[in-house]
Amino acid sequence: MYLVLVFVVGALTFVCGQAHPDHGTGCDVAIRLEKLLADLTSRVDDLEKQRQVDHKKISDLRREIDEIKIENHGLKTELDDMTTVRTRRSLNPVPQPSTLDKEVDDTQAPTVHIKNGTRHTLKEGDTTLVDTGKTNRVGRTRNSPSDNKISHITDRVGEFPRDPTAFYARMGNNLNDVVRGQVIHFDKIVTNNGEHYDKNSGVFTCAEEGTYFFSWTLYTPNNHWVDSELVKNGEPIAWFRTGDSQFYEASSTTALVKLFPGDRVWTRVRDGPYGADLVALVSMFCGFKI
């Protein structure tokens, strides 16, 4: 419609230039149409400026929503940890010393009293008593050195986790019109040992101090590009660019990060043009404790 109006104005202007001076009607119409065209152009410019302002407001709102989600996830994690501690304490109360423990002095070897008045002392490591029918009271026997070694080895083996912290998640659906600061959600979980990665917020929360390996891959359509970054507690620590070519393109990078309990790690959009998309085909995010 806009092009048709421009064509009509041009035609009338040409006719006005060829018309006789006494015939000014066509010229008046051309002048009015030119003014109308100028007004429409001005309105289009105003609408474009307003669209850019609205787009910026939407981007800011998305960023605030993502920050609120991350904060809520952190609070939920703290609440879950507190609930777990209380549950463990209620299920495993601190044992109280028994009456037998109070009666027997661990610094002395236990004794056996026989009915005929003879007193015998048990040697350390004894586990069998002969003629138990004549015994009035038997104290505890100490563990042998071999028992202590076995217990020590068992305790050490129990310190190693059977299933170390690790996660691997893929992007379930394409992300269209991504904006700067937007959290990239990888919501299709493949592996999540320890349940420390939240698919709803896209955030990994550290539960154990150590060095962690992270990697993420993004896939963009042709003529699209996106800069993404890995974030630790809101601070960028690694980034890369993918796309900006005539073909579909995938890019990835890795990072080694020292984490402490409560630290949070996620990926987000660092920069990109308006209307940039991310394709879910091979986009992924993973991490594990070394």
UniProtKB/TrEMBL annotation:
It comes from the Eukaryota. Residues 30-78 form a coiled coil. Residues 1-19 form the signal peptide. This is Collagen alpha-1(X) chain. Residues 160-290 form the C1q domain. The keyword tRNA-binding does not apply. Keywords: Coiled coil, Collagen, Secreted, Signal. Pfam families: C1q (PF00386). InterPro entries: C1q_dom, Cerebellin_Synaptic_Org, Tumour_necrosis_fac-like_dom. It is found in: Secreted. One of its GO terms (cellular component) is collagen trimer. Residues 132-152 are annotated as: Disordered.
